Amino acid sequence: MEKKVYTCLQWRYNHLEGDEVRSLFLLCGCLSYYGDISMDQMLRYATGLNFFDRIDSLEGAINKLVTLVKILKASSLFLDGPEDDGDGYGVGASRLLFMVGDHKSVRMHDLVRDVARIIASKDPHPFKAVEDVPSDQDWTD
Fold first, then answer.
1. At CB < 8 A and 24+ separation, what contacts does 45-50 make?
2. pLDDT per residue over 9-18, tens digit each?
3. Helix ranges, the chain (H)
4. Cα angle vertex 38, ends 11, 28, to 5°?
5. Considering the entire predicted model, what is its pTM?
6. What is the Cα–Cα distance from 70 to 89, expressed in whole angstroms?
7. If we measure between CA atoms, which residue out of 43, 86, 36 comes closest to residue 62?
8. FRET label pair with 92: which of 57, 81, 82, 106, CA 20 to 30 Å apart?
């Protein structure tokens, strides 16, 4: 990756306001293998990682997630996701909660995803991009 591209995307990341939106960006960089991330998947991981610690309802968490995604789209770090083709298999086929057309999924360009993973590997956040999962033997004492 060219240094100019990395520097530009790093600058955009550095100018995001708030740790929540930065954390979501880094999380999605780790989740996105082919560029598309469903909103349901984001909500599950963000809730599990306690991104919404001051929000005590599902509706509040959904609204917060949609707001953060809109910020990332406005900064051009996220793109609109693919349309649901109706087969139930695509990432765009959001399962339960996100039935509004423009809130089913988002897409990350592969260069943006790669920069997010580089930043996540350096940044002090509770997750890191791991390419190779250890085998069962590596987990024994």
1. 49/23, 49/126, 49/127
2. 999 999 999 8
3. 3-14, 19-31, 39-48, 58-74, 110-122
4. 30
5. 0.74
6. 25
7. 43
8. 57
Report which of 56, 29, 60, 57 is spatially closest to residue 42, judged by C-alpha positions: 29
Give me 75's structure tokens.
């900064």
The answer on pLDDT for 79 being more than 80 is yes
Rounded distance, CA 122 to CA 64, Å? 26
In angstroms, rounded to a whole number, what is the distance separating the alpha carbons of residues 45 and 32?
Answer: 12
- The string of pLDDT tens digits covering residues 29-70 is 888 777 788 888 889 888 888 888 788 888 888 889 989 999
| CA dist 69 → 7, 50, 93, 130, 135 (Å) | 22, 17, 17, 24, 34
What are the residues whose beta carbons fall under 8 Å from the beta carbon of 83, sequence distance 6 or more?
Answer: 92, 101
Instruction: Considering only the C-alpha atoms of the chain, give the largest distance between any 2 of them, rounded to a whole number of Å.
Output: 48
